[in-house]
């Protein structure tokens, strides 16, 4: 199950702050397996290695099949791996987070950081600032689902892909 533990709790908190019900979301991993960094295990926590391009590419058919089966109106990519698996290797979360991207006739996509990135922030003030930005990115996705929000006033510019 994706997003359990500290990152999952932080995601729950951010979803609540953005007024998104987790029970109304479908969570999945873009890459369906993990390589563990045994040398870098910290206490009971195990850190996983970032998947390489071949691993992301190999898992993409499963991700696309899930998207087709679910038929979401909005997809939120949490982190660079998820964003690149769907939006391509040129996508940069650091530069394009919170933008609304339309995939042809498919769902709108909003990418943001992975919750674990917030947990790794160096100090409390940075974590608070990063959490605010994360919630704001999630609020962009929520606004796409709300019929009462006027897109031109509430959302960042749309990027067509």
Strand content: 15-25%
Radius of gyration from the CA trace?
Answer: 16 Å
Side by side, the strands of the main sheet go: 3-5-4-6
Helix content: 40-55%
How many β-strand runs?
A: 6
Biggest sheet, open or closed, and with what strands and sense?
Answer: 4 strands, mixed
How are helices and strands ordered from N to C?
Answer: HEEHEHHEEHHHE
Give the assembly state of these chains: single chain
Poorly predicted runs are 150-161
- Straight-line distance between termini: 30 Å
**Structural class designation:** alpha/beta
Summary tags:
about 160 residues; 7 helices; disordered C terminus
Give a quick summary of the entry.
Helix content is 46%, strand content 18%. It is of the alpha/beta class and 161 residues long. It starts with a helix and ends with a strand.
Explain what the structure shows.
By secondary structure, the chain is α/β, with parallel strands linked by helices. The chain is about 45% helix and about 20% strand. It contains seven helices and six strands. The strands form two sheets. A four-stranded mixed β-sheet has the order 3-5-4-6. Strands 1-2 form a two-stranded antiparallel sheet. A hairpin with a 5-residue loop joins strand 4 (about 100) and strand 5 (about 110). Helix 2 (about 55-70) packs across helix 3 (about 80-85). The protein is globular, with a radius of gyration of 16 Å. The two termini are about 30 Å apart. The relative contact order is 0.16. Residues about 150-160 have low confidence and may be disordered.
């Amino acid at each position: 199950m994706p997003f359990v533990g500290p990152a999952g709790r932080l995601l729950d908190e951010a979803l609540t702050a953005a007024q998104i019900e987790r029970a109304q979301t479908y969570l999945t991993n873009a890459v369906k397996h993990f390589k563990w960094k045994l040398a870098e295990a910290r206490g009971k926590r195990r850190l996983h290695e970032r998947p390489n391009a071949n691993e992301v590419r190999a898992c993409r058919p499963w991700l696309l099949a899930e998207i087709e089966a679910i038929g979401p109106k909005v997809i939120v990519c949490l982190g660079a791996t998820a964003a690149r698996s769907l939006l391509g290797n040129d996508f940069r979360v650091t530069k394009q987070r919170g933008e609304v991207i339309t995939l042809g006739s498919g769902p709108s996509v909003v990418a943001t950081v992975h919750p674990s990135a917030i947990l790794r922030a160096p100090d409390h003030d940075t974590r608070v600032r990063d959490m605010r930005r994360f919630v704001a990115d999630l609020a962009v996705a929520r606004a796409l689902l709300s019929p009462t929000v006027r897109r031109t006033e509430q959302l960042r510019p749309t990027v067509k892909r």
